From TrEMBL:
GO molecular function: glutathione disulfide oxidoreductase activity
Keyword Transport among UniProt keywords: yes
Name of the featured protein: Glutaredoxin
Pfam families: Glutaredoxin (PF00462)
Role this protein plays: Has a glutathione-disulfide oxidoreductase activity in the presence of NADPH and glutathione reductase. Reduces low molecular weight disulfides and proteins.
Domain Glutaredoxin: 4-64
PROSITE patterns in UniProt: GLUTAREDOXIN_1, GLUTAREDOXIN_2
Family designation: Belongs to the glutaredoxin family.
Species classification: Bacteria, Pseudomonadati, Pseudomonadota, Alphaproteobacteria, Parvularculales
Protein source organism: Parvularcula dongshanensis
Length: 85
């Protein structure tokens, strides 16, 4: 399974939903709290092509987007293939 990275902030309902969806799929992920860390937030914005909302989700080096994007991929049946090696 490809590594999954989430840039999150505390008390973010979309972050919690993304984490829940990934956990339901049995996906281990790296959670990077970036809201109050300037370096991590700048890294997130750079990696995501300028997006500064939370969460920002990456599968391997591929930027998925936020929770709505992750959910849409799952509903379309495209998330599991992305996660596979």
């Amino acid at each position: 399974m490809k590594p999954v990275t989430l840039y999150t902030k505390a008390f973010c309902p979309y972050c919690a939903r993304a984490e829940k969806l990934l956990k339901q799929k049995g996906v281990d992920f790296t959670d990077i709290p970036a809201a109050f860390d300037r370096e991590k937030k700048a890294e997130m914005v750079q990696r995501s092509g300028g997006r500064a909302t939370f969460p920002q989700i990456f599968i391997g080096d591929t930027h998925v987007g936020g929770y709505d994007d992750l959910y849409a991929l799952d509903q379309a049946g495209k998330l599991d293939p992305m996660l596979a090696d």
